[in-house]
Design goal:
The protein is α/β, with parallel strands linked by helices and 711 residues long. It has 18 helices and 37 strands. An eight-stranded parallel β-barrel has the order 14-15-18-19-20-23-25-27, surrounded by five helices.
Length: 711
């Protein structure tokens, strides 16, 4: 909560009575409701100070070189110059603080306009002296160049749960010339970064127009790619009218183990790099927390296991909370961090447990997850048998139901309740975390065999989050029997679906993290689609509906991606994930590649869980450098194909493979290879194809972004 704070009249008296050089002055502060009358006008100058009980001025002394006759002071607004705290070289301001998870210090400062023309700039040092420590920790040095008020934001998460003193000190610029080094601080705030995130989410920068960023790979192996073209990518994203990106952050790839808890420092370092680069391009960043899929060390464990085990296992839940806290600390260091969300999709595999487990396993899992105990708290055995046809004598006989069973209603309710509990607890470590809620209705059958729909509307409020995240696609609300819609029909359904969510989520704004205006996902060919020649009409007219119900939207596939089965396909992580024989990493202009010498090979095991799509028709592509005619052999599963390559460049081959469990490459001469892909599906986002060529929906999306006022 924002607390307006005011300087006490006694604080003024202390300030006026202090004339000793170097004396520190304490300015006690209090909320506006603590003071009435004459002190109100003075107090208004401190409306911009948040989160401090008092401020201490360091290095106070008399001087005759400024109108306030002091080296450091609280000054009132004068004309177009705002009020604030005035500090000069060697002076500063500080405060006692108690830091929490996500604590963030935000300062706005500039050279005082009266001397800006003569000043060569100054440096603002921010220090933290932790209680019990002898030396202050330098948190950062920030150059203040001119009268422009710059905002400095410092994440303090690594000092969570400590007490100490924060100091903000003015020092002369490197030249050593302190003339005109008058810094005017117009904002000091100690909080959790929420005011900034909520500002980004709720319109401070306009409507959020976002793209999921996968670079030149796809979400499952994104964190192992090199990001060599990130500047070009972000420049193009901005030019298309987008003002934000969404990053999927895999739980296991970032936190590989939870007993003990460990973190992938390479992934965290890459996250820092992306946040910094996005800030350069003025792109806000949303994150999907806990993405289920990754290839990281997947020969040793499956990425899905922890999403089953977290339901009922407190140890794993605590590891999850540590992951949320760690992720928030990293992200909250950056002013372009807008917020995050978890999604029902990543926990949805639990719904199918009854269909994949045998009866004994169903009962064991029902006990382990707490489902049996939850039912005991809500239903008698008589109610279960009568209302749901359970036919049990004891709660220990209850298992995870199959999806068609009448008991499925209870399993849906239990998982929804679990997700809400997990979200609420996660919000303590990742403030304002939202959830992409399931807006589809699920089918089960009652004891009479009638088809019943289960609605997940109890989750729509997303607990304490200020917004609700959803995935929205044209098929929602349709029969999905292969029908085609005119654009105005699609708009009517869009407004109905979004409006119905708002009516059930406490009227919180919606963030459409996946806006699926068209889709080519295998297995959903019968889903309703807009007529091809009317897709642009839909995109050019849906802006008013989005503005009415949402705070923004995100595109899933900004650039078409191949569902690559390979980990580290660009060798950015050197040989990690690859078996190598007579091969080595080479670096050309910062780009890592693999040299395979004559008689050598590289290989990779492909666990079954990587195979997301059913087609046996596989494409293999790679960039190669050869010298003269070279025979390159690709082996996928039990199938082999050798191609003769005469010129360097991109090569492609096709193979029909039933079980692509292994992959290898060898050649009869030395070759250099990079950007290797093995895939059986290309996801179409209808904006740019695999090669970056413009597709049919780009004009409509650019028009939509422009009319939503994203820039």
């Amino acid at each position: 909560m924002k607390n307006k704070i005011r300087i006490l009249a006694s604080g003024i008296a202390i300030l006026l009575a202090s004339y000793l050089i170097g004396q520190n002055i304490i300015l006690p502060l209090r909320s506006p409701e603590a003071s009435e009358g004459p002190t109100a006008a003075i107090g208004e100058a401190f409306d911009w100070i948040e989160g401090f009980d008092n401020l201490e001025l360091y290095g106070y002394g008399e001087t005759d070189d400024n109108p306030w006759s002091s080296t450091v002071a609280k000054i009132d607004a004068s004309g177009e110059v705002p009020g604030g705290i005035f500090i000069t070289s060697g002076t500063g301001v500080g405060a006692n603080v108690e830091l929490k998870e996500g604590s963030t210090l935000e300062i706005s400062a500039g050279i005082h306009p009266w001397v800006a023309e003569y000043s060569d700039g100054a440096v603002l040092e921010i220090q933290y002296l932790e209680s019990g420590k002898k030396e202050s920790k330098l948190l950062g040095e920030y150059e203040i160049k001119d009268q422009t008020q710059v905002t400095i934001e410092v994440g303090l998460g690594e000092y969570a749960n400590t007490k100490g003193i924060i100091k903000v000190i003015c020092s002369a610029e490197k030249s050593g010339d302190s003339s005109g080094d008058w810094i005017l601080i117009t904002r000091m705030s100690l909080g959790d970064g929420m005011h900034r995130q909520e500002g980004l989410i709720n319109g401070q920068r306009g409507f959020l127009c976002s793209v999921h960023y996968f670079a030149d790979e796809w979400p499952i192996n994104f964190w192992s790619c090199e990001l060599l073209d990130i500047d070009q990518d972000f420049e193009q994203i901005v030019s298309d009218g987008f003002n934000s990106i969404i990053l999927v952050v895999p739980w296991r790839e970032f936190q590989p183990t939870f007993s003990p808890v460990s973190y992938n420092e390479d992934a965290l370092e890459k996250l820092h790099m992306i946040m910094e680069k996005a800030e350069e391009y003025d792109l806000s960043v949303m994150v999907r927390v806990g993405y289920i899929w990754d290839y990281y060390q997947d020969e040793e464990s499956q990425c899905t296991e922890r999403f089953y085990d977290i339901v009922g296992d407190r140890g794993i839940q605590e590891a999850w909370l540590d992951y949320c806290a760690t992720l928030y600390r990293v992200l909250n260091e950056y002013p372009n961090f807008a917020g995050g969300f978890i999604t029902w999709e990543d926990f949805w595999a639990n719904i199918y447990l009854g269909d994949i487990l045998d009866e004994k396993e169903q009962k064991a899992r029902a006990g382990k997850t707490g489902f049996q105990e939850w039912i005991k708290d809500h239903y008698s055995i008589k109610q279960l048998n009568g209302q749901y046809g359970a036919a049990v004598k004891d709660y220990s006989e209850i298992g995870i139901p199959k999806r068609a069973d009448s008991m499925m209603e209870l399993w849906y309710a239990y998982i929804d309740e679990f997700l809400m509990r997990l979200l609420e607890e996660s919000q303590e470590y990742f403030p304002n975390l939202s959830m992409e809620v399931r807006t589809d209705w699920d089918i089960f059958h009652n004891v009479s065999g009638e088809q019943i729909y289960y609605k997940h509307d109890e989750t729509y409020s997303c607990a304490d989050s200020s917004f609700t995240s959803v995935m929205y696609g044209i098929p929602q609300g349709c029969l999905n029997q292969g029908e085609r819609l005119h654009y105005d029909e699609a708009m009517e359904k869009t407004e109905y679906i979004l409006g119905s969510i708002i009516e059930q989520n406490q009227k919180k704004p919606i963030y459409i993290d996946q806006f699926l205006f068209a889709d080519n996902t295998p297995g959903f060919e019968m889903n309703a689609q807009i007529y091809d020649n009317e897709l642009e009409d839909y995109l050019k007219n849906v802006d008013s509906i989005l503005e009415k119900y949402t705070l923004g939207y995100g595109v899933w596939a900004y650039k078409n991606y191949a569902a690559n089965l390979l980990y580290n396909p660009q060798f950015g992580k050197d040989m990690e994930g690859w078996g190598t024989d007579n091969s080595e990493i080479v670096v050309e202009e910062g780009n890592k590649k693999m040299r395979i010498r004559k008689g050598g090979q590289i290989s990779q095991t492909i666990p079954n869980l990587r195979i997301q799509y059913p087609s046996p028709q596989y494409s293999i592509s790679a960039d190669v450098i050869v010298e003269g005619d070279t025979n390159i052999t690709f082996v996928l599963g039990k199938e082999t194909k050798t191609v003769k390559v005469s010129d360097s460049g991109k090569i492609s081959v096709e193979l029909t493979v039933d079980t692509p469990d292994k992959f290898s490459i060898n050649a009869d001469k030395d070759i250099i290879i990079d950007n290797v892909k093995v895939y059986n599906h290309v996801q179409n986002g209808f904006l740019y194809d695999l090669e970056g060529n413009v597709q049919e929906a780009l004009d409509g999306i650019q028009y939509l972004n422009k009319h939503l006022g994203s820039r």
